[in-house]
Amino acid sequence: MPLDFASLRPATREFLARRARGEGLLIDGEWRKAASGNTFATLDPATGSELGQVAAAGADDVNDAVAAARAAQVKWAATIPVERARILWKIADLLEANIDELAEIETLDQGKPLFVGRWAEIPGAINQFRFFAGQAMNIEGNTIENSINYQPEGKQVRSWTVREPVGVVAAIVPWNSPLVLTAMKLAPALAAGCALVLKPAEDTSLSALRLAEIMVEAGLPAGVLNVITGLGGETGATLAQHKDVDKIAFTGSTATGRAVLDAAKTNFKRVTLELGGKSPSIVMPDANLDLAIPGVANAIYFNGGQVCIAGSRLYVHRSIHDQVVEGVANYAKSLKLGHGLEADTQMGPVVSLRHAERVEGFLQRAKGAGATMLTGGERTGEAGTFITPTVVTDVTPDMEIVREEVFGPVLVAQAFDEPEEVIAAANDSEYGLAASVWTEGLSNAHRMSSEIKAGTVWINCHAMYDPALAIGGVKQSGWGRDSGKQALESYLEWKTVCAVV
Ligand code: NAD
């Protein structure tokens, strides 16, 4: 059934009328069309209905956006920290005041159940702005004792460091959790005194446009945030190669991360990369299964598995393997799939037809290689891009389904006998983004958290996010961290000053 626009909130309808008609580039404080006039459609993945047209920015638009950011950055960096903090806090307040509309926009464009945006991701975005409002007033250099002994008679050599913003940042973000992932770039960059050009993912541009409106309303000066929508290989690639961009803050796939890294070579841009994952959930024999079974199920099925840190590889001790895997399969079967705007929906569609076909491809190849679909494993629904929540068994460690990131509701389950064996299996991956360990034993918790190679290890939980907790990966899961003081660091340079006084 096509989307019933009349059922949407008036604020959402007004937003779509205002910004989803191809006039959605924000450059130097002005909303405009792409210079070429080109647009592309953005769809509701649950029904396939067109939500509107988004501007496809070309090279001229990218140049204008970077030039606007360059001009604005100097003034923004000179703004006293308390003023930057005030604006960041105001953005958070306005996001909160508009949270129901934002959640509806995110659900329409991305497909996620309303509760995911309304109660998890958008509050997460709000907290990013509040945390980094504080950090804006917490930027420090050092004074350094030096051993320079050739100063003129009667003089001393003093040395110190100051922190300066990196400059103009290109923020390039994916489609799975658009608002919170965008906030994870914008909030620390603005706190540090950087100006930005934001490139949202082509499947989910809308919430970035509403966020940008809110940031303008909060008093962010013109040019400090510019938004250019468009396709990755065109708008994204042009932005990544631009020689007047100082840093690329990228979240997306490992393959695109490689392209971004190549593009950064043009002028040795600073680069942070938050990339893919194939994160293990490990259930030890002493786990509390009342916690672990729904915990590992939620680790993969939340947001339809379209989460970078999704627990997509399940390792269960052989003594409890069947009980846990059956429990997770029952959880998967119980999930209500539907349009994200329906109140009882627990899992929505995947983001696009292209992505649904990609996930289906993984499932077909896994079946061909001899894996069993204990539950799920197929497309479902008359319209939209729904995939049934899936548990895959009878796999071997070399299979594609065990090694590659599917980015859908697909869990691969395997048994283990010894802790050494599961640590080796968990680490047998090109990725190293996250892991969870389910155990009541202190020794297990310490040993596993130290020996698993990942940016984050959760014990008896999964996907606990907080703006104060750095998130990011080792190995091919990326470079650098979002959130936490580490994120602020990545938008700052060190300057050393040495003075004879
Ligand atoms: P993607 O790499 O296809 O796209 C990400 C962004 O890059 C989009 O805005 C896209 O338009 C742009 N892009 C594409 N080609 C480009 C190019 N050549 N130059 C510059 N920009 C380009 O990723 P996706 O499919 O949108 O998102 C899913 C991926 O993101 C998954 O691999 C997931 O694990 C990863 N992800 C990682 C994290 C993390 O924090 N580590 C968080 C969320 C998602």
UniProtKB/TrEMBL annotation:
UniProt KW keywords: Oxidoreductase
Catalytic machinery residues: 274
Top-level taxonomic group: Bacteria
Domain Aldehyde dehydrogenase, first and last residues per copy: 31-497
Pfam families given in the database record: Aldedh
Family under the similarity heading: Belongs to the aldehyde dehydrogenase family.
Protein name: Aldehyde dehydrogenase family protein
Species the sequence originates in: Novosphingobium mangrovi
